[in-house]
From TrEMBL:
Tagged with keyword Membrane: no
The UniProt record lists the keyword Amino-acid biosynthesis: no
Signal peptide: 1-18
Pfam families: PKD_6, Por_Secre_tail, Trypsin_2
Keywords of this entry: Signal
Protein name per its UniProtKB record: Putative secreted protein (Por secretion system target)
Highest taxon above the source species: Bacteria
Length: 744
């Protein structure tokens, strides 16, 4: 029985959530979104007096004798109001959904209100909702089991001067069981992004600071970056990876962002305030050209793990870290002492507390006044208050420093800023025990937004060896593997890595190997990671072959385990169109014991075939291949080209050989080999058509070109390094491709 196989893609299933999920709402929607809220008759209001202040830029203490005055890049947006709010301040009532408790907090003159709970003891089924008076924004369905540590939690600011806290205990008709208390309120005297709804504010102009959503290739790094707020101050920071790649939630930001009283010491009150600190990830535009923000995902609480005033760095550990399914990544880092190359590094940050922006550097160098800092100037964008602590990334997406302060602004885009060097923070802050006890020079990013299962994609039908498959070994996670019957599980079930081998008793198949990762932290705690593995199937691949026997043909060779074994392949047409063997022009729809075939392009550029392989292990299963002939070297049907010499040292010649009749009558019985072969010129043949030739390197960079010429083109290769290149010859809108070796 013939078995045909199709290829499946590895997949990761996750849904981006958070411990505190902020959503847009409306007066019409909110009655449907909150159980029992529409039945509420009255809500108690507790009012606090407040006189708004004006934000003042902090003056930073000079380091290493710095005589200059820098612009502070921390965003001071709120004052801290000490309060005593408890259950007695609200009102308990009954609804069809269960018992509810509600309280409205009013602070006239406040631009926004944030909350710090010093007690948060919801019953196991209770749900808490917080929303503003305008009912435009809501923190939805907060539950105690969303948190790893819930004795203190922080709530990001809501725009306006009134907010409502609503707790419902579903199906509870008895005593109300939940208990909460609030000891601090952040009272905003300045607007901050994400506090009203998804609409944008004005401060962080996209002309000055481009949005990160216009750089999709930066999004893996962007998923490690968060807006950090504590004690009424906001900055930016980055989750960083460690040598174990285990998802330990270490967060790097600037010392001065925590130093609210500017005394160059982290006081006990500033350290204690970290228990209610907030980390807002994925706060960005919902697309590149949009005027609306995604509201992000929030995590709360941290402890101080390391700090140094000398390099202006702190490393925090999140006490309620993201879960495996929350789509958060961990940036790499590098202790490099040489500056990143010009135009290669970048900064991801939240200027003025707004949606995430990206700034590209023009150059980075040592700071003139002290070697513990970099100085960066920018090619596009600047940094602003709210950017403090943002990571300076090198071209490998590794953090090499964090923003201290400087002189750039939207008015002075040519001015630079300085960044504490990660290489000096390593020793000054004692980062080695946290990040790399082995003393690694660098660590690469940990990407959890798309988890990749490592391991072979093919276990050949001759392969009886053991194979290892693995995913990141994350703290707080358990693992359960689903191994198909095509494989034998040798060891590793319930760990992050398993060992398997081929089950020879089962027919060959493309099968999915799946692991379910269950996290004990975060909001989205379950992720399924799958990998398609072809088991018992010969590792047959396709490759370019020798020059075709006639211009309209394309030759495709067969490989087994990435080598050319010779004439051990059987091939059949799956689309009904014929092909020819390499040594004749006799069309056929099935051939035995051939190393490859040639396709006639007059039947179309897309062909389908089935192939099997025979060796000492026996005959493999048939495999299905869909082929785009444009992916393989071929010649336009109207012309042939003589390309010489190959290999080439100084000058490559490309000569047009016109074709006035079908070459099949001339080439019948000839043999194609891997040597360079060209059609010979025909008598009295002449062409007035122009053609072009372009030589590319393996990165598709043009290294030599001759745009349009008649009859013959020469390309100078004297300055081209030795290596493999690809020649594209275009005539009459059709392109032929040929591999060229440059050897001096």
């Amino acid at each position: 029985m013939r078995i045909l196989f199709s290829v499946f893609l590895s997949i990761l299933i996750f849904s981006a959530k958070a411990q505190i999920l902020r959503v847009a709402t409306s007066a019409q929607k909110i009655n449907r979104q909150i159980p029992g809220y529409s039945e509420l008759k009255t809500i108690n209001t507790k009012t606090f007096n407040y006189s708004p202040k004006v934000s003042k830029a902090k003056i930073l203490t000079p380091i290493d004798g710095d005589p200059k005055t820098e612009i502070n890049k921390t965003d001071h947006y709120a004052d801290i109001l000490s309060v005593a709010i408890g259950m007695a301040d609200g009102k308990i009532s009954s609804s069809s959904a269960g018992k509810v408790w509600a309280l409205r907090i009013s602070i006239p003159n406040a631009l926004n209100i944030g909350l710090i709970f010093n007690s948060f003891d919801l019953s196991p089924t209770a749900e808490m909702y917080i929303f503003n008076d305008q009912k435009t924004i809501m923190d939805s369905c907060i539950k105690k089991n969303n948190f790893t540590v819930s004795n203190t939690i922080g709530i990001s600011p809501f725009g306006g001067n009134n907010i409502t806290i609503y707790i419902v205990e579903p199906n509870n008709s008895g005593d109300f069981k939940s208990s909460i208390s609030i000891n601090k309120i952040e009272v905003g005297f300045k607007e901050i992004g994400g506090s009203k709804d998804g609409t944008l504010m004005r401060e962080a102009s996209t002309n000055c600071n481009p949005t990160v959503m216009c750089r999709p290739y930066m999004m893996n790094s962007a998923r490690a970056v968060a807006r950090f707020s504590s004690n009424g101050f906001a900055g930016t920071g980055t989750l960083i990876n460690n040598e174990y790649n285990n998802g330990k939630a270490y967060f790097l930001t600037a010392f001065h962002v925590l130093d609210a009283d500017e005394n160059d010491v982290l006081d006990p009150s500033e350290i204690a305030a970290l228990s209610g600190a907030r980390f807002l990830f994925q706060f960005w535009r919902n697309n590149c050209l949009s005027s609306v923000n995604d509201l992000g995902i929030q995590f709360t609480g941290a402890i101080l793990k390391a700090s140094s005033k000398e390099t202006d760095v702190v490393v925090l550990e999140l006490t309620n870290p993201p879960g495996v399914g929350d789509g958060v990544n961990y940036a790499g880092w590098n202790r490099q002492t040489t500056a990143p190359a010009d135009y290669s590094s970048y900064i991801l940050h939240h200027p003025n507390g707004e949606d995430m922006r990206i700034t590209d550097t023009r150059d980075v160098g040592d700071w003139f006044w002290g070697n513990k800092f970099w100085t960066a100037h920018y090619a596009e964008g600047v940094v602003s208050p709210g950017s403090s602590g943002a990571g300076l990334f090198n071209q490998y997406d590794q953090v090499v420093g964090q923003l201290r302060g400087g002189w750039s602004s939207c008015d002075f885009t040519d001015f630079g800023d300085r960044y504490g060097k990660f290489s000096y923070s390593w020793g000054d802050a004692g980062l080695q025990p946290l990040l790399s006890p082995s003393g690694n020079q660098a660590v690469n990013p940990l990407i959890l937004s798309t988890i990749i299962m490592n391991g072979d994609e093919n276990i050949d039908y001759c392969d009886n060896n053991n194979h290892t498959y693995s995913v990141p070994n994350l703290v707080g996670c358990s693992y359960s593997w689903n191994v198909p019957n095509t494989l034998n599980l040798i060891s590793g079930q319930y760990t992050s890595s398993i060992v398997v081998n081929r089950n020879a008793a089962v027919l060959p198949a493309y099968t999915q190997l799946t692991v379910t990762i269950t996290d004990s932290k975060g909001y989205s705690r379950i992720v399924n990671v799958s990998k398609t593995v072809q088991v018992g199937i010969a590792n047959i691949t396709l490759a370019s072959g020798p020059p075709p026997p006639a211009p309209r043909y394309v030759t495709v060779m067969f490989k087994y385990n990435n080598v050319y074994p010779g004439s051990y392949f059987d091939v059949e047409s799956a689309d009904g169109n014929p092909f020819i063997p390499l040594n004749t022009l006799n069309p056929a729809t099935n051939l035995q014991n051939v190393p490859g075939v040639s396709f006639d392009t007059t039947y179309g550029m897309y062909r389908t075939i089935t192939v099997r392989y025979t060796n000492t292990c026996g005959v493999s299963a048939w495999q299905h291949f869909a082929i785009n002939l444009d992916d393989y070297p071929h010649l336009p049907a109207s012309s042939a080209f003589k390309v010489y010499p190959n290999p080439v040292s100084s000058e490559l010649s490309v000569e047009l050989v016109p074709i006035n009749e079908d070459l099949t009558t001339q080439l019948t019985g000839t043999t194609s080999t891997f040597q360079n072969q060209v059609a010979q010129p025909q008598a009295n043949a002449k062409s007035n058509s122009r053609f072009s030739a372009v030589l590319y390197d393996i990165r598709r960079k043009v290294v030599a070109t001759n745009p349009f010429a008649k009859d013959k083109i020469t390309l100078n290769t004297t300055t081209i390094p030795n290596g493999t290149y690809f020649l594209h010859i275009t005539k009459d809108g059709k392109t032929s491709k040929q591999q060229i070796i440059v050897s001096h």
